[in-house]
Amino acid sequence: MASTPATAFLHNHHQPPPPPPSHHHLHNLRPSTTTINCTSTATTTNNNRHSTSSPPPFTAKYVPFNSGTDESYSLDEIVYRSSSGGLLDVQHDIDALRHFDGKYWRSLFDSRVGRTAWPYGSGVWSKKEFVLPEIDDDDIVSCFEGNSNLFWAERFGKRNLAGMNDLWVKHCGISHTGSFKDLGMTVLVSQVNRLRKMNKPVVGIGCASTGDTSAALSAYSAAAGIPSIVFLPANKISLEQLVQPIANGAFVLSLDTDFDGCMKLIREITNELPIYLANSLNSLRLEGQKTAAIEILQQFDWEVPDWVIIPGGNLGNIYAFYKGFKMCVDLGLVDRIPRLVCAQSANANPLYLHYRSGWTNFAPVKASATFASAIQIGDPVSIDRAVYALRNSDGIVEEATEEELMDAMSAADSTGMFVCPHTGVALVALMKLRERGVIGRTDRTVVVSTAHGLKFTQAKIDYHSKAIEGMESRFSNSPVEVAAEYGAVMDVLQKFLSKVS
Predict the structure, then answer these.
(1) Quick check: 176 and 145 in contact, CB under 8 A?
(2) Whole-angstrom Cα distance, residue 60 to residue 75?
(3) Which residues, including other chains, have CB under 8 Å from residue 440's CB and lie 6 or more apart?
(4) Closest C-alpha to 93, from 59, 47, 127
(5) With contact defined as beta carbons under 8 Å apart, do 384 and 359 qualify?
(6) What confidence tens digit (pLDDT) does each residue in 379-432 have?
(7) pLDDT tens, position by position, 143-162
(8) What is the band of 45 on the pLDDT scale with cuts at 50, 70, 90?
(9) CA–CA distance, 186 with 365 (Å, rounded to integer)
(10) Helices 102-112 and 291-299 meet at what angle, rounded to 10?
């Protein structure tokens, strides 16, 4: 422990965090108590102003999204909509957080990366004060999610984007269940765990899903010992996605409808039964998902990228990224927000059509089948959040056809990435904006990869086998069948080497 003039610090939700230490002695095991003996200086600096007063406790509450009303709710209430039926948002006490300056928060968050002290080894909970500041550590349900790789896509930029050299892919799919949904689900399930300990009327947690949400919900619920209920559209998700909630012991309902139909049903069911709604209508999940934006800033040593491109389905994620960047601006960690791009499949593109109309007269669409199945959503719950994020970040919306997204995914794979079709959608958006000169060759650009490529093996096999009707599959790479004989093998190898030499 660093030796500084200090007072003893009790780390719970009534106190501010300790200052970032120069040498932490961390424990490899989760402590049996929430008390951690740390040191904290009595004087803090904020904008070159010294204060010896005790900082107020950090708090958060639900408020109506983008509304000037005084309506608010405790996070310990079970509520999903405002009194007018609108979306809710989690609002933090920014004034309390401003008791510490941006340099302090940057140092604190950086000091926790890669540590094993519970729960700060998680990429989400390393930023606990910005997420759920009042939850006890013992109530947190975490698989040490986050801290995902920021992949330098230099070769993809050289081959496909005329030498674009400052291109990065944020691999959010390198997580416990293989998608970015873990970032939000750890927060939601942790809060439900707290509610159940408070004897709130919650028997289980339910969601409608196109695959990744159900995987995350079932895993984190299983870790917490909380029953999970999953509504899936029959025959519309990959086998790899289906097996996860089954393996984690969820009660799975396969319904003869699409995601939007599943979503309508789960909302009706959770109004009648003591099942907590886990879809992105619930603003708790966005608090976890926003930490990916803060993580990107950390990985660039707190330099802000020019562009961040995000696949969009139910549209909570684009707002979550905006919220993470905006919070860092408001608290002085950085001085600006990157421009955001939301990328949609042309087969499920209500936001794109709304953007093209000049943000007038939004209308849901009937989503058609797409290889980017997790964003096959025609009536997104978070449409208002997405529009707000894009309008406040000078954002853009683009779309990708099925052939475009599959080609982009496969081109990325051939440069060392192994990404999902949704990442292909985002890469297509990047390529179109580069072609039009909107994104410059030297612009620092981050493409968000939302799920692991192993969740979509059948789509990849069909592509490389040229088994997709009407698709050329320009980057297909099928196995070569050859007799198990020396001469036959030598012949095909010599042909191959002559092409690549």
Answers:
(1) yes
(2) 7
(3) 306
(4) 59
(5) no
(6) 999 999 999 999 999 999 999 999 999 999 999 999 999 999 999 999 999 999
(7) 999 999 999 999 999 999 99
(8) very low
(9) 31
(10) 90
Of 107, 118, 116, 97, residue with least CA distance to 36: 118
Q: Tell me how far CA of residue 15 lies from CA of 95, 112, 334, 426, in angstroms.
A: 15, 18, 25, 41
Which H/E stretch holds residue 461? helix 457-464
Which runs of consecutive H residues, i.e. helices, occur in 3-120? 94-97, 102-112
Angstrom distances, CA of residue 252 to CA of 98, 189, 218, 232, 241: 44, 18, 10, 7, 12
Quick one: pLDDT band at residue 18, thresholds 50, 70, 90? low
What mean pLDDT value characterizes the chain?
Answer: 89
> Contact, 94 vs 129, CB < 8 A?
no
Q: How far is the C-alpha of 127 from the C-alpha of 119, rounded, in Å? A: 10
> What stretches of 282-409 adopt beta strand conformation (E)?
307-311, 339-345, 396-400
Kindly provide the b/e burial profile for residues 249-261, where b requires at least 16 CB atoms within 10 angstroms of the residue's own CB: ebebbebebbbbe
Q: Which of 356, 347, 342, 399 is nearest to 376 (CA)?
A: 347
pLDDT at position 444 over 70: yes
Q: Say which residues have a Cβ less than 8 Å from residue 33's Cβ, sequence separation at least 6.
A: none
Contacts of 3 (CB under 8 A, 6+ apart): none
How would you list the strands of the sheet with 73-74, edge to edge? 73-74, 60-64, 88-92
3-class DSSP assignment, residue 458 = helix
pTM of the model: 0.89
Burial 411-437 (b: 16+ CB within 10 A, else e): bbbeeebbbbbbbbbbbbbbbbbbeee
* Distance in angstroms (rounded) separating the CA atoms of residues 202 and 473: 48
Under 8 Å between Cβ of 72 and 62: yes
Whole-angstrom Cα Rg for the chain: 23
Distance, CA of 143 to CA of 121 (rounded, Å)? 9
